[in-house]
Amino acid sequence: MYILPERIKSLRNVKGQSQKEVAEALGKSREAISKYELGEREPDPDVIVQFSQHFNVSSDYMLGITDHIENIAPGKRMPYSPELYAFEKYLNDQNFIPYLQLAVRMKDSNIEINQFEKFINKVIRQEKKQKHT
């Protein structure tokens, strides 16, 4: 099983592009992209580099040498998984860190959500009272 066709199709889908859009970006025909994805045609090294640049991943990832996506331009990569990208954005947001720490503490202490909501609502009411006095 050759991994390059799977990676091309998967990355294209993650990026939300049609075969035609990828073809136009790479200066290829839609049919050529289709054949690459089906494994009916193997791209030459220059085309593999074009795919890597277009999807912002390493050529090693495209070829299956590694399963780790390595971005070409730090901070500007197209993620393999939109969910992981969204989570990564939260992790890089300094304002989110206290919430993440709180979630970890809640999980470690087995606090039920109902108890937590009651506690938070109580704290919010107290804060509102203090602001109004």
TrEMBL record:
This protein's record includes keyword DNA-binding: yes
Gene Ontology molecular function, alphabetical: DNA binding
HTH cro/C1-type domain span: 8-62
Key words of the record: DNA-binding
Domain of life: Bacteria
DNA-binding among keywords: yes
Coiled coil start-end: none
Protein name per the record: Transcriptional regulator, XRE family
Organism listed in the record: Ruminiclostridium cellulolyticum (strain ATCC 35319 / DSM 5812 / JCM 6584 / H10) (Clostridium cellulolyticum)
Organism classification: Bacteria, Bacillati, Bacillota, Clostridia, Eubacteriales
